[in-house]
From TrEMBL:
It comes from Basidiobolus meristosporus CBS 931.73. This is Fasciclin-domain-containing protein. Residues 282-291 have a biased composition (Low complexity). Residues 44-187, 191-380 form the FAS1 domain. The lineage of its organism: Eukaryota, Fungi, Fungi incertae sedis, Zoopagomycota, Entomophthoromycotina. InterPro entries: Adhesion/Biosynth-related, FAS1_dom_sf, FAS1_domain. Residues 292-319 have a biased composition (Basic residues).
């Protein structure tokens, strides 16, 4: 058996989890705040014709012309398309930073795939983008079994960002068959899940180590279509050092693998899968309390509401589910254990998306080549795995020596 050089890793990811819990932005240029101004409407030209008219889009126009399918779509007056248009400078910067292919033909094919990743079915004006967290694109991804790859759309500061990296410079250049938004950089194709995790060590070093120990990193590299609920470093730390030391030891490896599999689903579920849970859209959701049916029965009578107010008590075995209203979501089948249930908590201090009622979703929709990652703040422990969680500020006695002496055998 070979000794892995991981003695210091366990302590390091605990330190790093406290130092930083944010996802770094990977940008290759200096940004300035963006203030969107209305653009000229060219309702008589198609999306392609509009791009062709402007010299700053000459490079992307050539790439579109080489892709007959995309060209046909952007010229079709009967089908609406949203196109995130990179300027010539954006394409030039991309080519200078990345290797596209060993031959000119392969490079062109690679760029065509990337350009398809900039096209979205339908006409999405800026106001619509603000309420569209994830959008399908024309890029069909082999690692998603030929399904459409997604773009994440986020509102940041004074503008919009795609996949948390590419800033939208200008919006709403309206054409006869869609709309164009100008982007500051070319969108790169997403990475495999494991590569995304490795690129954010301050967030996922504990998870990366756990995946390596159990061999599940290979599974996540090869699987075609996966949702990963990724516990942050601090989520692991909250288990307590005593439990961590056992799980990361040879004796606890089977339980660690069960826990990790309980965070993986072969159903790709983006945050748009849960949009019907918005508190504003109560007509399509159902409160998860034992009294919800009773409330609906008397909703048309104020008198009955007053009459039954004191009797309408929640009797759920977990009282926190009564104290904080939830809205029901679809459940995800995980690779091990029970299904994971996504709910929306409505209390002012804890509003947002949660998993299994007590694990908050900190960050949604890290788009990957073969799936999607949602970051959570607690490790989900499935039935069949027994661990004792210590208060992390009281378990230093287990952290001090155990971390320095931890050996992981392969």
């Amino acid at each position: 058996m070979r000794i892995l050089g991981l003695q210091c890793c366990l302590g390091w990811f605990f330190v790093s989890s406290i130092v930083s819990q944010s996802l770094p932005k990977q940008l290759a240029f200096q940004e300035t705040p963006v203030s969107y101004q209305p653009m000229e409407i060219d309702s008589g030209s198609t999306v392609y014709d509009t791009l062709k008219k402007e010299s700053r889009f000459s490079e992307v126009s050539i790439l579109i012309e080489a892709d007959k399918l995309l060209l046909s779509r952007l010229q079709d007056p009967g089908r609406q398309t949203t196109f995130f248009a990179p300027t010539n400078e954006a394409i030039s910067r991309f080519l200078n930073r990345r290797e596209t292919g060993p031959t000119e033909e392969e490079s062109l094919r690679k760029l065509q795939q990337i350009i398809r990743y900039h096209a979205v079915p339908g006409s999405l004006l800026a106001q619509k983008l603000l309420v569209t967290p994830v959008a399908k694109t024309f890029h069909k991804e082999d690692y998603l079994e030929g399904k459409s790859q997604r773009i994440k759309i986020s509102q940041v500061d004074d503008g919009l960002r795609l996949n948390e990296e590419v800033l939208v410079k200008e919006v709403d250049l309206v054409a006869s068959n869609g709309v164009i938004h100008v982007v500051q950089e070319l969108l790169a194709e997403p990475s495999i899940v494991t590569k995304t995790l490795v690129e954010h060590p301050n967030k996922f070093s504990a998870l990366n180590l756990a995946l390596q120990i159990t061999g599940l990193d290979r599974f996540l590299s090869e699987v075609r279509g996966v949702t990963l609920l990724a516990p942050s470093n601090l989520a692991f730390r909250n288990l307590g050092c005593k439990s961590i030391n056992r799980l990361f030891s040879p004796q606890g490896r089977k339980d660690l693998e069960k826990i990790l599999r309980h965070h993986m689903s072969l159903e790709v579920a983006y945050s748009s899968s849960f949009k019907h849970l918005s508190p504003a859209d109560s007509s399509t959701s159902e409160e998860v309390t034992s009294s919800s049916k009773h409330k609906r029965k008397h909703k048309h009578s104020r008198k009955n509401k007053r009459k039954h107010k004191r009797k309408d008590k929640c009797k759920h075995k977990h009282k926190y589910k009564c104290d904080h209203p939830f809205r029901k979501s679809k459940d995800l089948s995980m690779l091990f254990g029970d299904e994971a249930r996504f709910v929306v908590r409505e209390s002012p201090n804890q509003a947002g998306l949660w998993v299994d009622y007590d694990s908050r979703v900190l960050h949604t929709d890290l788009i990957n080549k073969n799936g999607v990652v949602h970051v959570i703040d607690r490790v989900l422990v499935p039935h069949g795995v027994n661990i004792t969680t210590e208060k992390w500020w009281d378990d230093d006695q287990y952290c001090m020596g155990a971390m320095a002496e931890a050996h992981f055998l392969e």
